[in-house]
Sequence to fold (94 residues):
Amino acid sequence: MPWKLKYKFYFEQHPAIKEAYICKYKDDLIGKVSIITAPPNLGIHGWILPGEEVTYEVWFPNTPEPINHLTLPEIEGIIKYLRTLKDTESESES
Fold:
């Protein structure tokens, strides 16, 4: 199944951490993905640093811990991979 996203994540200010930003991405196949970034030293393991590529702390469905310091292309790649796994799972159950 072809699928394309190309970084269409929409961020808003985190409700509990003033300097942080969060995206609650809902995928129709894999579920909710939470993507968070903030300046260093706020307890978030995805950072906004001047002159550096922004990285993100990401909670994927059914994971006990977040994955830290991912870039947007890496996040999108993982989402595509998880979709492929779910799609394959669905086909084998049919």
Notes: The longest helix spans residues 72-93. The longest strand covers residues 21-27. The two ends are 16 Å apart (CA to CA). Strands lie at 12-13, 21-27, 31-37, 56-59, 67-70.
